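Here comes my example:
=====
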Amino acid sequence: MYFVGLGLVLLVMKYMEFGPVANLSWWWVLSPFALAVAWWSWADSSGYTKKRAMEKEIKRKNDRIDANRENIGTLSKSRKRK
């Protein structure tokens, strides 16, 4: 996502002919978008994205279970999961 943000900033600066970006080649200005595509391709093919999503779901599930147990009094504050 950072590459897309950087690409958008450089694109606007190039279009408005602002600062040193006005003298850069279009290849340099558009290269962050290519890097974003490469990053997303790697993240999806390696399983990085799915792993992060699964970790987030497991954390939400454990937090919900701990909150329910604490509400009914079966889980003390010292025995909370990590």
Summary: The mean pLDDT is 88. The chain has three helices and no strands.
